[in-house]
Design brief:
Elements lengths: L9 E5 L4 H13 L1 E7 L5 H11 L4 E5 L2 E7 L11 E2 L4 H12 L4 E5 L10 H9 L3 E4 L8 E4 L15 E3 L4 H13 L4 E8 L6 H8 L3 E8 L5 E7 L7 E2 L11 H10 L2 E5 L12 H7 L6 E5 L11 E3 L6 E3 L2 E4 L5 E5 L2 E5 L6 E4 L5 E6 L4 E4 L2 E5 L3 E6 L10
Amino acid sequence: MEIKKAKKLSGSLAIPGDKSISHRAVMFGSLAEGTTRITNFLEGADCLSTISCFRKMGINIENTEGEILVHGKGLHGLSAPSETLDVGNSGTTTRLISGILAGQDFVSELTGDASIQKRPMKRIMTPLSQMGADIVSLNGNGCAPLKIEGTTASIEPEPVLNGREIKVPGDISSAAYFIAAGLLTPGSEILLKNVGINPTRDGMLRVCKAMGADITLLNASTEGEPTADLLIRTSSLHGTTVEGEIIPTLIDEIPMIAVMAAFAEGTTVIRDAQELKVKESDRIAVEYRMKIQPVEILRILLIEPQQGAGLVAKDAAIGGQHTAPLIRGGRQRRKCQVEKAEVQIQPAAHHSQHLTAHPHLPLLVGLRPLRFKRLAGVEKCFFGHRFTSLPLRERVQKSKS
């Protein structure tokens, strides 16, 4: 594949259907009476795994051109599967279907690919067990494959779900790539149609606004799931802090936020993103391996990595210890001093940051020094925009140009 640099981006784009809502539409449609018609369904592997699981439990699901028809059998209409339910690589299918299976009057087993079999499931096993479900990890490690023995559960009065039409909005996680492209490519103006803006999922938009993005919501609708068309214009972005309650609303968009931060002026700090370590891959590790230009990403590993994700850093301007990656964008070269276990970053246009780490842990630092010299045991260099991992006590070596 050859990708050529675009001078500008313009036009409109229909975003693929929201994965989370596509999953749930099939599940609720299966538990409803009558037929549920789903349009703009995301036909990705994860959502197709959900369809496969419910077909194995006796639900007739038609995948026709442009729509999915789910012929539900009601809350108690599922049948015991004759084989193990395979969720593929879908963590959402695993978590949600486990709750449904816990309320059935049959025993079932579910598993997935190698990645799923490493992802922690105690987060669902514990609460389900506390509510009376019999759910065990067959390998005894808190991961799939899981064996679920249904238990009698009821809601008074028992609800009746009826089939309906569901129009799945565009997935904001898919829109994130085009949002970033429109904001960063000079002279661009693009329109992303029918994007879901549910306040539990719109953290990406809030962060973009905090970074100075020019994003306008058009044709907003609250009929069913909240949606809007997003008008994106090129913007000059600046750094921000992303942490706390907003993290669950943008957990899948953090990699793209990191890319935008690379081209923003100033420092962006991201905290509380431990969930990224237990996705289909360790996304935090992947982000640090990316060669984003121009950017400096400073990584200090935790002294005890099992405590969580991110970095143990000490910011002289903020004070105190926190766990966060510090992403410095912009195009100005920065001076970096390495002396024993302490790194001092001195951005030309920003206040100094002091980061400390255990001396035996690796630190991600910029390479490609334009010049460097050794003075009294201190390595001094001016960095360009490549990365490598170096032991803290090793001398900085000059890279190839």
